[in-house]
Amino acid sequence: MADSDDLAPAATSTVTNTSNKGLGFILVVRHAFADYQIGEEITETSLIKEIIEGDQAVYVIKRAA
Hints:
By secondary structure, this protein is of the alpha+beta class.
């Protein structure tokens, strides 16, 4: 039987740990842009709004929070 450590998902970096309960989703970087790397999670509400309303929206996907 495998240890629980063997089943843990790979760690991903997070841009911020701020909760965004109002939006109900976070952004995950699909293509690197600016200072963001693939797999980073963007959780800060103001950053999310800025990104999805701008040209960088094509570089991220929405994921349920």
